[in-house]
Write a structure and sequence with these properties.
Layout: H1 7-19, H2 22-29, H3 33-47, E1 52-54, E2 59-61, H4 63-90, E3 95-101, H5 109-120, E4 124-130, H6 133-141, E5 147-150, E6 159-167, E7 169-174, E8 194-198, H7 204-216, E9 222-227, H8 230-238, E10 244-247, E11 258-262, E12 270-277, H9 283-293
Parallel strand pairs: 3-4, 3-5, 8-9
Antiparallel strand pairs: 1-2, 5-12, 6-12, 7-10, 7-11
Amino acid sequence: MSYQIELRHFRYFLAVAEDLHFRKAAERLFISQPGLSRQIKQMEEDLDIQLFVRHNRKVQLTPVGMYLKTELTRNLKNLDYILNYAKLLQEGKHGQLKFGYVGSAMQEIIPNLLIRFKKEHPNVQFGLKEMDNDKQIDSLLSQDIDVGFVRLDRVPRGLVIKPILKESFCLVLPKNHPINSDTFKNLNQLKDESFILFDPSYSPSYYEKVMQIFDDSDFTPIISHNTIHAASIYKLVENNFGLSIVPKSLQHGYAMGVKFIELTNISQRTTLSIIWNKNNRNPIVTSFLEKTTS
């Protein structure tokens, strides 16, 4: 590689590759369009490759450009991590872990894990973001997060998944509902009620498992609302908009006018799993996984 190539050339190239428009990329980079064009041309000449096919009104990546965009994006993220980690070392913080999680993991699992881990790693910073399963998968593959907590049965190649909690489901009813733990026999008693469920897009596999519960009870539920937050479900149940079915762990941490009946007589169970990218080079991930999965 020519010594004329510098890191800025890669960043300039990626800006044009993302926008496919020299003017827009130049504005984003706060440089002139002719200056940006010269830098890209210099990069092509020094590397003896063609990155773009230039037309009057549009720009297209060549196959070489598409390859370089993918590889540089991944490797520059690694470089950003290295530089950020060096800064954390300088500040005595030692590192950072970024988590994605489904809401139920935050009730007990994640807080307990972080408390235990923090005792031996007091200078690690944590970043926490609630997101659905699919977004966690995308963020793990792009290494925008380090560890996820999901309700999935399988994951794409390159990711590792390990169950950490298998639990039963609970029926959620308003506190004033006539059915209670003493009078409840089976879900068929509630076939004429409306149900409020987690949105299928939040976790298709979880939604399918809940629907299997209704299938085994020989009725199709009347679904009045779908949402992605447990608090929203409980507020709707509390105000008599319907009933719900949730993982057992979600009966903690919410002070609302609802009651829970654990569904112990059904075969379905839901599994919370920890998930990570096996190519993640964040050294803190290994330490965290050793504490979590041992």
